[in-house]
Fold:
Amino acid sequence: MNKTSVILVNLGTPDEPTPASIARFLRAFLSDPRVVEVPRLIWWFLLRLVIIPLRAKRVAHAYREIWWEDGSPLRVISGRQVVDLQEVLTDRYGEKAPVVAEAMTYGKPALDETIRRLEEKGIEKFLIIPMYPQYSGSTSGAIYDQVAQIIQRSRNVPDMTVIKSFHDDIGYIQSIAEAIKAYWAEHGRNEKLLMSFHGIPQDYVDKGDPYGEHCRVTAHAIASALGLASSEWSMSYQSRFGPKKWLQPYTDDKLKQWVEEGIRSVDIVSPAFTADCLETLEELNISYRELFFEQGGEKYHYIPCVNNTPLFINALAEITAKKLLLNH
Structure:
């Protein structure tokens, strides 16, 4: 058995679309100082006494709208990515192929539990791939924190490497561009393409977070791969939370602006997510669709994430092979 593993790490998901399960997930997620930079004592009271009680029922309703028969879309798709990447790596490298596993930053399966389980099977080396193409301290940074905690607790420290980002990876860019082309071939193309990225507070970027620049690089690379003129597309940021100023333009404002300018049909895609989840299936595909129509828009197409499309799985395989020197 190969003594190397590649672990695909995503954000996490509630176990069930219920207020109780949502509350547990939000408590873990929003308690991370990487995610919310507010003095801990103040935030502890706000989170438990105000935010979670107010948000749990509303978020549970949103999850129920997009929940699949076999579970949370993010968890289901993550499992498919693991299976498909394992198949590709095994086909290419046989006994040299690393063991593919998944983990979540918040919820199950936890990264430390996944590594412990693999170590029990004889795995000694780990390649950790955060499934966020664009690095942010609030996402990938939290995974580095967990890796550091695992190292601190270990007498025999695991050999771990983390892929910081793949926002400009050629295979990743191609996988998105081809998914957009395939969607257009089947459903037709609208007047504008909007690339919506998950937002973060502006002050995070002001303090040195490269996320905004990574998003811009990704967006321009996709537009170039599609051969789009600057007038045919734009980028924006979604999912803002709280009173702080976040990266702009905001997705809802951009949609309103386009309607005011006479644009009646849009395509929207999110290169920030590698698996469809609440932020894409509910926020982009339902909430912003309703907003666009309310403003006077007429055609709105949501283009799914790369998920487990063959080109994206191939991109992950190439990233893995380069880092682990599998071709040598």
Remarks:
- The CA atoms of residues 121 and 303 lie 40 Å apart.
- Residues 170-302 form a domain with the Rossmann fold fold (CATH 3.40.50.1400).
- The mean pLDDT is 96.
